Peptidoglycan glycosyltransferase RodA
Amino acid sequence: MLRFDRRLVHNFDWVMVVLLLLISTMSLASLFSATWNGGPSPSPIFFKQLYFFLFGYAFILLLISIDYSELEMLSYVGYGAICLLLLYTNLFVDSIAGTQRWINLGFFHLQPSEPAKLVLVLVLASSYSSNEYVENGYRLRDIIRPAIITAVPFTLILIQPDLGTALMLAILFVSMTLFAHLRWSTITLLGSTGMGCAVLGWLYGLKDYQRRRIETFLNPESDPMNHGYQIKQSKIAVGSGQGFGKGFMEGTQGHLNFLPERHTDFAFAVWCEELGFFGSLFFLVCFFFMLFWGINIALTARDKFGVYLAFGLVMLIFWQTVINLFMITGMLPVVGIPLPLFSYGGSSLMTTLVAIGILMNIRMRRFQVR
């Protein structure tokens, strides 16, 4: 239900808006350069991303007009819908490059695994906020329900196969569960179980190309012309930018097509090459200040659901950012995790903008007593 309260205007989150506009401008500038083909106008990819940004901004305005507490009631409906979409994707969608991830809606290719991350945060926030506080921390049996909630979309996404996004769901579950406060005995048991699952996953769960990616990460020189090529070219692009970069639209790795996926997974490598260390530092300061501001929103939220929800949304953006940055610098294997707000992709961009809209919503209603 739409509600108007004059206090919402006074508490409008201008800090988040300014940061979002700064980051969006840098993102579109980088995409313009990465996809420019030498013609008189930007590429169609640039215009598509611009339209997604504009639609996302409009959706944020709608989102902040709705009390975020209503999302708690809708979270399980969204969870059921996402699981059905993931199941439909696995059963009926044609395979593209060996994976089943996108539903063709005609005007838009929906990747259900992207909003699945957002929906999982909503459901886990609802689950943990409704539990009674346990002084010594949650026991193992107390987190069985959240674990099952995570396991269903995790499995459906892993089947596609999309190891990177599936691992993101696991990371979100671990982050929010630790934030909810666990007993040390539970943490020890879960850590041991996780290590055991990792070993079994390496031996029996990974496909050959996924295992090769990890082996290439550990030793890129062992396969320099195939699976190690992306990492090597990305590191060259990042390093060649030096202090102030080669100049906007002057990057050779991107414009001479040495750098693969330069508008998606490796988009930030183009920015590093063209703007250099200081240009990259400016972007990262803006981005991580936005995440710091999100943590501040979590700390000032007036109810448990708002606290857990804001923290989970910040973790959603934070972990994707860290993984992508480590990936393009060769510190992690290539797992297909986009840089939020920066990599091209409608589903990823809309998911991140919705997350930011919800954070603004929580900030604007911090004066309300629950």
User: Anything to note?
Assistant: The radius of gyration is 21 Å. The mean pLDDT is 85. The beta strands are 103-104, 109-110. The first strand starts at residue 103 and ends at 104.
